Amino acid sequence: MPVVHPEPPDGGWGWMVVLAAFFQSALVFGVIRSFGVFFMEFVGYFGELAGRVSWITSIGIAVQQFASPVGSALSTQYGARPVVMAGGFLSGLGLLLASFATSLTHLYLSIGLLSGFGWALVFTPSVASVARYFKKRRTLATGLAFTGVGLSSFAFSPLFQLLVDTYAWRGALLVVAGMSFNLVVCGTLIRPLTLKEDLAGPGDPGASCLGKLSTLFGLPLLSHGPFMRFVLAVTLINTGYFIPYVHLVARARELGFDEYQAAFLMSVAAVADLCGRLLSGWLADCRAFRLGHILVAWTSLTGISLALVPLGRGYPLLMAISVCYGFFSGALTPVVFSILPEIVGIGRIFGSMGLLQMMESIGGLLGAPFSGWLRDMTGDYTASFLAAGAFLLAGSLVLVTLPNFSSCLEISHIGTLDLGSPVPPTGSGLCL
Amino acid sequence: MSICNQNLFGYANHYTQKELVKSQKCVIFTVGMGMFSRCSTTAAADGSKDSLNNTQPAQGTVVFAVDFRFSSAPVEENVILYSPANIALSCNLTSPSTDSATVNVTWKKDNETLRSSSVTFNETKHVWSTQYINQMGNYTCVFKRDQEVKATFHLQVPQIEGKEHHVVSYVGDSVVLVCKSIKYIPISWIWYMSNGSDQQLPVSVQWNKYTVDEKYANITKLKILKISEEDDRSYWCQAVFKLGESKGKVSLKVLTYMTPLKPFLAIAAEVIILVAIIFLYEMYSKKKQMHAGTLRQLMGCNLNVISVQRKSSTLSFINCWRFPKLS
């Protein structure tokens, strides 16, 4: 007989879940970001063009994002633990099979489809579980969980290069598959938690199979006004967010700086990103300001710093702007995830997160090519960064329209749902 | 084709030998139909890339000059020759005019003194030069008074870089060994493999074992199929130029699948152990909780614990009973 918690525990075993989410984000996104090492090996071994080899990671990322609602639906039904364990096993299996590859198609299927699907089953349930375990310290916990991405990006690139130099790409993929199996351990750490909001159950028992399925996937959320406005805002944010990752180095090289200076800009932005995540998490949980206000502030600041990038002609100024961009963009990430329960209620967090991931990925996929197209049209990156800043500012404008933004009342008055009404923010400051 | 006798002068900074490789900037230039490369920290005279198939020596003479004084450090110059040419090596020594002591000059090729007939000496400017060099080697001009200063010109064909690190592959797999010569296009490439006893055998191209891909003239790829343990050796790619040959080395290391399997199995074992530990700990702490829960129920408690049956739609409330306190 499971124990029902009236409120998220805000600690205790929750910190182990944060640890699990930390390793999970390291093993999913760290691996994806460091896959460039294998890229060169595949180009040399298969004698294929760079464009065809790039599809491997593109398919993996696309599957991870578009299959997120599947992960959410399964977690709503069966709980996060078995889903994350299964996802970890699948992603490791995909990489294991890839080490025996004899053609690029084999790699598309094993890394792209299989591992991508495994990653989809892992990411959203883990982050949602962190949100379920915390209320007062939710943003800090989410921020801590995401620091795994930054740290692993530092560590995994040289590590993967070392593995490739020692074992060639086949052996290196085998070892990375073993590392990915640790995602199963992460899943084991996520103890099932029963909250008061889960008791209402997914709709009435008389609903049809299709109705139940649509509820599992969170489809009723599509008619939820505030949620859809939030999704629009996050999609706009995502469109501008990734542009510097793709084009900042190119902008620096365009201004005449050499490869190491340009790469150093990205490293500095990554460190600022890490600090931003942690600081923002702590600040948001101080409850001095409302999460909605904080998110609008960070988003606007990120947009402004991106729009200022074209002004950075000298290296120190460009470095300062990169630090600002890194800090503010890192700061907005945990808030995006921790504000979700306030909009849709914690009972529907799995479904909402899956849908959010799937739809914001459209922004991510379109942003970089659009920016590249602008650059081809205008001749340099000024227009691209201005557009990126504009997307972010547009996103923050949409965020202003969210409920609870301008009301001075403490208690949320929106008649949202019977299933898990948004939790009103409490006014106590817990700045320890 | 008549080309005026162009003398191109180049000047070098002074740098010690260990800086030679790092700080070099190379300029490729042509005189007539010859092509040269000059590596120094200051760019030599301007030139342009020309077509690279030529067999006649250049009409003009290229002069590589070095300026220094008695107090200078020894100067090293790398001159890379791609095709036959007339080269003049010139060393200009500047000494203060008040100095009237005689200076002794010698030119050496690979530590053998050259005959004076091919050396010219100009007293007013202390210029010595050697002309019509058609051999590779290290040419040194030595000025001796009470101290000794010298400059060395290394005349060589373009060097091929192999790969410093091993190329790793597996038994039964295939591998591609690559050698590149980026700036200069060789006439042909030849591959050799080591025999364990310092000998080098040419690699014979068999369709089911070795294939050489020469799609581009300046990149050669040796593809080895069905690798076995004996293929774990060094391979040399030799580029043939008009004036000589140069080799690059690529080593192949062959592993079996057992080698990466060991760390994989170690990590898999660690995963299984951790999962087991976490589950066991959870069962243990649940037992403790239930134990403490029943104990509290018996002794009277303040908590309202509501247990819910999740699968059925009815909620069953189990209140916490209060037993009268046992005095």
TrEMBL record, chain A:
SUPFAM superfamilies: MFS general substrate transporter (SSF103473). GO terms for cellular component: Golgi membrane; plasma membrane. Residues 14-407 form the Major facilitator superfamily (MFS) profile domain. CDD domains: MFS_MCT11_13. Gene3D superfamilies: MFS general substrate transporter like domains. It comes from the Eukaryota. The chain crosses the membrane at residues 12-32, 83-101, 107-128, 140-161, 167-190, 230-248, 260-279, 291-311, 317-337, 349-370, 382-402. It is a multi-pass membrane protein. InterPro entries: MFS (IPR011701), MFS_dom (IPR020846), MFS_MCT_13 (IPR048233), MFS_trans_sf (IPR036259), Proton-linked_MCT (IPR050327). Pfam families: MFS_1. It is found in: Cell membrane; Golgi apparatus membrane. The keyword Membrane applies. GO terms for molecular function: monocarboxylic acid transmembrane transporter activity; symporter activity. Keywords: Cell membrane, Golgi apparatus, Membrane, Symport, Transmembrane, Transmembrane helix, Transport. Belongs to the major facilitator superfamily. Monocarboxylate porter (TC 2.A.1.13) family. Proton-linked monocarboxylate transporter. May catalyze the transport of monocarboxylates across the plasma membrane. This is Monocarboxylate transporter 13. It comes from Chelydra serpentina. The lineage of its organism: Eukaryota, Metazoa, Chordata, Craniata, Vertebrata.
UniProtKB/TrEMBL annotation, chain B:
It comes from the Eukaryota. One of its GO terms (biological process) is dendrite self-avoidance. The keyword Membrane applies. Residues 57-152, 158-256 form the Ig-like domain. One of its GO terms (molecular function) is cell-cell adhesion mediator activity. One of its GO terms (cellular component) is axon. It holds the Pfam family V-set_CD47. The chain crosses the membrane at residues 263-281. Keywords: Immunoglobulin domain, Membrane, Transmembrane, Transmembrane helix. This is Embigin. It comes from Chelydra serpentina.
